[in-house]
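Quick question: who can interpret this fold?

. . .
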Amino acid sequence: MTPRLRSGLLALLTTTTITLGAPAAAYGAPPAAPSIAGHSLPPYQTWIADVTAVTSAAQRYLADRLPDSSVKPAIVLDIDNTALETTYRPGLVSPATAPVLALARQAAADGAAVFFVTARPQVLGWQTAVNLRGAGYPVADAYLRPWFNTQPDAGFKTATRKQIEDLGYRIVANIGNNPSDLSGGFAERTFKLPDYDGQLI
């Protein structure tokens, strides 16, 4: 990469990060409920309320579980419709899901590393990293599906959590909105956000 191209990319990333740092309110009024395959999802406010019910329980658990100096604690978050409001606010970038962001920041403040595990392909790696950091997340690392990996989502995500624990971390909480985010072990507790019978993937 030439110095000129490198400086141009850095300038773009810096500008994008500043833009992404805006709160969700900067994206406009709460959107109408999207329609997926002919089915309407609940309104945005209902989804946020349902997410908050789960993250509140997770926050209470983490308040008791952390800090813990006897282990290297970590939490794992899914990205789409968990960490980011992907379906309700679609586009090149999405704002943080506010209750999940608060949970991640609490965990980080109490000494936990925050990892992201997603079935997004690696080609979206830079965009995803910029979006997460710009939205305000502490990011220890983000694991995307490797090139040509055709494992089912659950198998890939389970293997990735094992990989994180093999680095010496104890995953104290795993949060996602689909069963494939949570199955397979390698987490002390799991917290499932709404997927509305598989409509919100």
